[in-house]
Input
Amino acid sequence: MNDTYDISIFPVKLEIQVRSYEVDFQNVVNNAVYFNYFELARIDYRKKMGYSLNPNGTFSDGLLFFVAHNECDYFSPAYLDNELIIYTRIDYIKNSSLNFEHLIFNKTTNQFIAKGSGVIVNVDPITLNPTPIPDKMIKEIKSFDKTVKVFR
Output
């Protein structure tokens, strides 16, 4: 299945190991846990762009993003102690939102586990209303993530 996706366009590769509390009574990763994996990948993406995480949970650029939409398609189960690779990219940028894409593979078998996407929205830290993504950040993302599309 790895041949179906061009992972070379995904600038971030995060490796994780499935932990005991992430599996259910059938010994497979619970479906809801994949959304935690996607969040870890989005954080890793920002870190690899050069931003640091502040103790209060915000990034050093001061921007605040909320998840507006998440989705996941499951193809194969992941099990306790599996090593997984999560590939992450930003597919598109709109006025105040970004769409992340994620692909998850079993590191040992290269089996395709899941794909997902998530829209995050830049919000004003005071009003919590959507606010445009700064041009500076868009330029940084375009430099880091070469295939991102911008719709403004």
DSSP finds two helices and six strands in the chain.
